[in-house]
Structures are given as structure tokens and as C-alpha cells.
Amino acid sequence: GQSLEQPSEVTAVEGAIVQINCTYQTSGFYGLSWYQQHDGGAPTFLSYNALDGLEETGRFSSFLSRSDSYGYLLLQELQMKDSASYFCAVILTYNTDKLIFGTGTRLQVFP
Amino acid sequence: DAGITQSPRHKVTETGTPVTLRCHQTENHRYMYWYRQDPGHGLRLIHYSYGVKDTDKGEVSDGYSVSRSKTEDFLLTLESATSSQTSVYFCATTGGQTGNSPLHFGNGTRLTVT
After folding, report:
1. Tens digits of per-residue pLDDT, A48-64?
2. Phi, psi of B84, deg, nearest 5
3. Could you say which DSSP state residue B71 is in?
4. Chain B, 40-99: which have a CB under 8 Å from a chain A CB?
């Protein structure tokens, strides 16, 4: 089967940098996406890595290494509003219609 | 953002009753998905649709059925609700099938089965 594993919870203080890891076991996929979800809200798209390497979007960066079956989301200059859950997700190559999500990481930012 | 409306937003029902959740989109997106979200499990795919009358199963499809008779509507039916189906259900849509065509989510339906 396929699985994407993430740490269940990460804590940090305002202004800090935090990395949320996503390790996966899947036979093949098109790329790694990241979504953010605030408590009581709907998930929203953050980033997508089609190729290995680092993609930067403002304070957020995402990284993918297919050889290591590993990716991460890097959040810099943390703000209180970044407190949320973060999910990695992949579309499987043998069925390009399915987007499978990781278990999710709850980030708590403290003042 | 994509106009996705889920109804109802909240529902309480009894074990053994059928329940239908509705997802309506105004973006003419081809792909529509139903996920359930439970603590410790993240988002799990129930069923999805890749076109009108074209649907397929996801990871946790047992006890659920779907229908899509129009591009804009995707219905999820719990044939006989059980307490294990208490969850938050999210509908999502996308116009493309690759990872860089992001999913747009509705605001969710909180379902409680007593």
C-alpha cells in the first residue's frame, strides 16, 4: 500500500524556523503537495514539488528528494497565524485521479 | 477561490438510517472528491469522480456510495449509518489531475451518528 508519515505535532516560538517532514512509501507518484488547515477550517493548498529540490514561496519552502523518499515543508519567520495543521499529499502514478494525504502535523506557535 | 458548497454543515442521525451529503461547485471542475477527516488519520479518500457518471473508490469506501449526475453536484450517501462514520466530511474539486492543480475544499460537514 501507500503511506505518508508525518510527525503528529511540532511546537515553536514566533520568529523561529520549523521543518515539517513527510516520509513516504509508495511505488510512484507525480509530486509532493502541501496543504494547511486551521482549526475548524478547510484545507488550503500551499505548494507543490514536481521535481527534486527546493521550491520557495515567501516564508514557506518545500523540498523533495525522491531517492530518499522524503520531503519537508520549511516555515520561516513563524507567526502566530501559522498555528495550524499541515498535510503532505501525493497523486499516485498508477492512478492519476487520486490525491492521498499524509497523517498531518499540528504546528503550535507560541509567543 | 472555487465556489464549493457542502450541505448540510452539521447533521446528527441515528444508527441504521441513510444519510446523503451534497457537494455543489460552480467552477465547472472535472474532478470531485469526498474525504473524511478523523483525529490521527488525516484526510482519507472515500470516493471520487473524474466526470459525470464516472466514479471510483478511494481508501475507505465501504459503507458509502456516490453519484454524479451533473458536473456541479457530487452526492455522498451513507447507506446505513454507523457510529464509526461519525466524522467530518470534506468535498474537494480540481480542474486538473496533476499535483500542481490544487484541490479546493468545501467547508466540511460534521456528521454525528448516535
Report:
1. 998 899 999 899 999 99
2. -70, -10
3. T
4. 40-45, 48, 50, 56, 58-59, 90, 92, 97-99
